[in-house]
Amino acid sequence: MIQLHHVTVTAPTKPLLHAITVDFPANQFICLIGASGSGKTLLLKHLLGLVPETLSVGGTVTFAEGEDWVRGREIGYIPQHYQQSFVPFLTIKETMRDLCRAHHVAYDKEQTESLLCSFRLDIDLLDRLPHQLSGGQLQRMAIILAVFLKPRLILADELTTALDPVATRQLLDWLRNYQQQTAATVLFVTHELTHALHYADTLYIMKEGTIIDAVTPETIHASRHPYTQALYTNRHL
Amino acid sequence: MWIGILLIYLGTHSPYTTDVTQRLASSSMQHWLGTDALGRDFLARLILAGVISFLFSGVTVLLTATVGTVLGLFAGYYGGLLKRIIHRIEESLIIFPDTVLALVLAGLLGAGINSLVLAILLIKWVSYARLTETIVSSTKQSEYIWMARVNGLSDAMIVRRHLLWTVLRQVRVLMSVDIGKIILFLSAFSYIGLGVQPPVPEWGAMLNEARPYFQAAPRFMIWPGLCIVLTVSASMWWNRRLQQQTAKKGV
């Protein structure tokens, strides 16, 4: 579905992503796993077409059947630092309406309410400014904003980093259910192998700016790559 | 209510009608602040001068802020040549004090209110452009602007919906102080004959006209002087209030 061919991102002094050639399958919950600094977030930025101008980019990214996917509409993004991702002086509803306006789509009140309901969030929250919402409410709003226009690809960056185990479970359950119901593709960036093993259809292991291995939760134990083996062996530590 | 009363007074007393039999008349029921050397109603002239000062200052500030903000938005968002040009112009303007530069420009462009508007516009647009450019350059690095790009919002939409609001909150603070400054400019330039031309009344011009009668009728100097001081003080007070508000709410 999403084909990356010889993708490279280079800083003036060193390569950050190099020679990534991969074909992410459609309609799957895909986990991109790797240590901090392995290039996971940069790869997501590259898929969004928003690599900083100071870096040089090479290779090609092709979405399904060579279509030109539009950010925000076909590609939804759930940021890691969701608290700062909201416009501080616009209510959540105004931000949603801006999103609709940008993509020439009518604001679907019923769908919004149903999404809020699925997260057990009050509808009144839509009329509040971001600082009037709690951290947990904001995070769920960030997910709602990402899936609001029914994108075909959802990119989630380190979604559960600051969450307790119960909240992590609820959030990932929701995302997994949503992915199955809508047949969207989720590309979930994490460094928690246990989460990946529980939710992913396929895992892509990243190390030092490249994808070194592709496994499934069922086949990971048989991987021959030493880094994958080390990750698997130490998953409970 | 006071403004209403003053405007009604202006409606019933012409600031231009001369009456030589009433030269330098003292306060009376008919002429509340007396008449000037040509027998014109002094309060009516004072009120009209105030209206002119506010209109002139308002229009000039609005024009200057619009030009500077629009250019600053482009320079801050896209950077490049425009940003460099604004920086160079600002650096070269810093060398000369505003008043000296305005004096030279107004002198070159000729006496009159239009020349003064143009001179102030040429000098002041750059401070709005620089302020806007600085705010936009830093705000565009924010996570929420990046997120707006991720969500597919166009540049025009990001500028209009996200950046303009932040910029305008700071620009209005600068505008509030410039209102007073420009009234002061106009008065100073009218005083030396480069601003509003007779017979149109203006506080600075009225001060100049009052010079020969300073000892005989000091009120001709006191009233316009007081009007200038109070107006500029009010503008400064408003500026402080806006600054406090902006600091309280954050950007």
From TrEMBL, chain A:
SMART domains listed in its UniProt record: AAA
Top-level lineage group: Bacteria
Coiled-coil annotated spans: none
One Pfam family recorded for the sequence: ABC_tran
Keywords annotated in UniProt: ATP-binding, Cell membrane, Membrane, Nucleotide-binding, Transport
Keyword Nucleotide-binding belongs to the record: yes
Location relative to the cell: Cell membrane
Membrane topology: Peripheral membrane protein
Domain ABC transporter, chain residue ranges per copy: 2-233
Family in the record: Belongs to the ABC transporter superfamily.
Protein name, as recorded: ABC transporter domain-containing protein
Automatic annotation (TrEMBL), chain B:
UniProt topology in membrane: Multi-pass membrane protein
Signal peptide, first to last residue: none
Subcellular location, record wording: Cell membrane
InterPro entries linked to this entry: BP-dependent_transpt_permease, MetI-like, MetI-like_sf
Gene3D superfamilies hit by this protein: MetI-like
Alphabetical list of Pfam families matching this protein: BPD_transp_1
Top-level taxon of the source organism: Bacteria
PROSITE patterns: ABC_TM1
Domain ABC transmembrane type-1: 50-239
Sequence intervals crossing the membrane: 46-79, 99-123, 182-200, 220-239
Keywords: Cell membrane, Membrane, Transmembrane, Transmembrane helix, Transport
Coiled coil regions, renumbered to chain: none
Main location: membrane
Family the UniProt entry places it in: Belongs to the binding-protein-dependent transport system permease family.
PANTHER family given in the database record: D,D-DIPEPTIDE TRANSPORT SYSTEM PERMEASE PROTEIN DDPC-RELATED (PTHR43386:SF1), OLIGOPEPTIDE TRANSPORT SYSTEM PERMEASE PROTEIN APPC (PTHR43386)
Protein name: ABC transmembrane type-1 domain-containing protein
Organism: Exiguobacterium undae
